[in-house]
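Troubleshooting log. The previous structure file for this entry was overwritten by mistake, so regenerating from the original sequence record. Sequence copied from the archived sheet and checked twice against the printout by T.R.
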Amino acid sequence: MAVRQTLGSGGLGNTDEGTGGRLATVLVVISLVLFTLSAQEGGSGVLSTIRSGFSVVAMPFEAAGSLVAAPFRGIGNIFVNLTADQETLTELEDENAKLKAENAQLAEEATDAQSLRSLLELQDQYNLESTGANVIAGSTDSWSSTLTIDKGTSSGLTVGMPVCDANGVIGQIIECGPTSSVVRLMSDESSAISAMVQTSRARGTLRGSADGTVYLTTIAVSEDVSVGDMVVTSGLGGVFPKGLPLGTVSSVERPEGAVSYTITVEPITQTTPEQVLVITSITQEQQAAASDDASADTAASTDSATADSSADTQS
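Regenerated output below.
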């Protein structure tokens, strides 16, 4: 009895193993046949149609799966960025700081170049014998208007030389050391520059004041002066070349009983410049032009006085 049961069990096990092996063989053969037929169809047969149908049915599920997976992919990217190597982040920060410094340097160089070009244009326009200098300091007290430049006697500068920026005259050297000079600005109360109204040629003196207001003095009320008129150097005295811009007339008042106007002038330059031009000498042509203009003014004044005298005599 025991023998029969053992044999029976062994017989059943052999039968199951044989059936499984035959099934696997059949499936492999079917797969090979289907693959061969699909390849021979070239995408237009029955098998290709069935496969396309399954693709259409499965497409919504694939799209839904992609939408569900997208946030997790984004979180994965964020995690990768947050866990980036610290050394790489430090390198990027250093490179960014370097680029900012280079941009700032280029912007500063461009500003300096533009300022120098403007000074050269002024030099060429008025045919000035001059040298450039940098401003290194402003006024050291509250009761004077001065600035300091980085050139002095070792560069050929002397007291009295006129100083301009790109717009026109700003002042005159009053102190000179070996490597630096002090420039008195036209707004200083000790400043006095021979000037004239460019349109009417009326001559006077441009003076500063304690509060920084600039006045054009000794202009007779008989002269024609209007707000907005340009005031320039007259060239008299042989210090400043003739015709350099000084400022514009900002107000004209005629006090009752006065023989001259009270004229305020807005200086041509309102801010402290970074570079200036020091006029080292006046050419003979500039001196001759100023002398001729002065002679013409004297002759005109004489003729006017003679005409007035004749008119009085006839009366």
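The CA atoms of residues 178 and 236 lie 29 Å apart. Archived copy saved in two places this time.
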